[in-house]
Design goal:
Layout: H1 2-20, E1 26-31, H2 36-52, E2 57-62, H3 78-85, E3 90-95, H4 96-101, E4 114-116, H5 119-128, E5 132-136
Parallel strand pairs: 1-2, 1-5, 2-3, 3-4
Length: 138
């Protein structure tokens, strides 16, 4: 009887440990708009995520008209982006194809912003790695 009680307690403790584990908080934002209100919202979301989940991994993928958010001459959130980009768990990634289409070169991007060959492939890759996908709209 004593062995059964010990076994039950052991099983309950193992079961409790399995349920107490959490999934990693990884998220990728897909942004295509040049709307600065939307840019503000994305920065607010990132700060909120990192405040409540400091170990979260966040990536923002830019293409289309959203490039203005990460261009040094046009960004209204340059201070925030530069600061967030210094964190190892935050990535700002710009589509090189979109850069060509909008005549933007790497020197025009804010410090800490990286480029990727293809935004759609980057988004798909992140989803395959387990990142949650959020399409940012106006």
């Amino acid at each position: 009887m004593k062995n059964i009680i010990i076994l039950v307690l052991l099983l309950l403790s193992i079961d409790n440990q399995l349920f107490s584990q959490t999934n990693p908080y990884n998220i990728v934002f897909d942004i295509t708009t040049g709307d600065t209100t939307t840019h503000n919202r994305v920065i607010r979301w990132i700060n909120g995520i990192l405040s409540s989940h400091p170990d979260a991994k966040v990536e923002v993928v830019f293409y289309g008209k959203s490039l203005t958010m990460v261009e040094s001459e046009t960004s209204t959130r340059s201070t925030d982006i530069k600061k967030l980009a210094t964190q190892k768990n935050v990535t700002f990634a710009v589509c090189e194809q979109a850069m060509k289409a909008h005549n933007v070169n790497k020197e025009q991007l804010l410090n800490g912003v990286k480029t990727v060959p293809d935004a759609l492939y980057e988004l798909i890759s992140k989803q395959q790695e387990g990142y949650g996908y959020i399409k940012v709209v106006n």
